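User: Sequence for TetR/AcrR family transcriptional regulator below. Tokens please.
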Amino acid sequence: MTAAETRDRVLEHATELFHREGYRAVGVDRLASAAGISKKTLYQLFRSKDDVLVAALEASREMAVADLPDEHDDRSVRQRLVAVFEAQLVYASRPEFSGCFFVNVATELRDPAHAAVGMAHLQKSELTKYVQRQAEMAGVEDSAFLAEQLTVLHTGAADYALLTGSYPLSVFAAVEALIDAAGIAK
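Assistant: Structure tokens for TetR/AcrR family transcriptional regulator:
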């Protein structure tokens, strides 16, 4: 197995363990064991456990951004914005759902100077920027305000699903109301 393949395997296991159990709950020994490597090999691939976390978040960020609807497909802006929440519903309905990985890390670490918290912020800002671009395409005057509202709703819906075990279907009425209030045509 190449170093790149081993690194990918470490990140796959790290993402799963950190997301499901929390960063601090998973030690380096357990992480190495789950990936089927020694601690020495782990430290040859990553300088620290923090570096593993940041790399796992980066890999997850790419997947999260890839799940956003194509900005130039044949759907309307309204349909794309609703599709963001439909994708979240599917994700939150999986048995292994354990909340938003990024928010979980930021909440657990609580250090704005930590690289992983910065990565979490970057991911949420990517969602906000996407929504803002969609709102601008629809001619919304205060696109930043709508983007913030929908990002907060998106984050809250994931938290609600984690706490209750059920995605809040009422979120779709809230999304529609915010889109209507912003003047985005049906």
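Residues 115-137 form the longest helix (23 residues).
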